[in-house]
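Pasting as-is:
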Amino acid sequence: MSSRSRQAAARTRDKWREKVWYQILAPDYFDNKDIGLTLASDPELLLGRTVQPTLYDITGNFDQIHVKLKFKIIDVVGQQAKTVFHGHEWSSDYLRGLVRRGTSRIDWIGPILTKDDYLMRISVIVFTTTRSKTSQEKAVRKEIERVIRAHAKKHTFDELVQKVVLGELAQEVRERVRVIIPIRECEIRKSKVLKGPEEVKARRARLRRGTTKAQ
């Protein structure tokens, strides 16, 4: 090995020695569960980094392994990295397995604003037991929107995330929708945090200023 190669190898080893393992924790509303480890030479480098465990990693229920979560690191205390929920998604393979001949799939996707001003996008999927009519699909989407927006209006971000990810909100949607048409499955298949409270408030302020100028 040449002198230059040995120096490069030594620098690489030194960089690895400088790195520290950090434990990544889920947010309080998921009981601060350990969701992984990550290496960094500086804790500041962890901020904004995302991790993607499954719901199984949180609950220990293997039946939930198809639910992929996304958390963003927002703070580092000692050697623990704290996170905030950033979204979730069901695996495409699992969803494909729910498709049946002679049935319909009804989707609803929309932005919602929580009680404490988090802007999220929610995606709901419904699989019927028979072919649906256009009028039924419209009624289903309308009812889904009514339930989702009502919950968003009365719940904080932390509360709503638990209801979305753990299936409580989907269960309520299911009970309301099954009155319109018989269904096999109803799930919140995807969610994403679009803006935090500060961004939402700043946008409101800009809109108010624009309205005032127009007047």
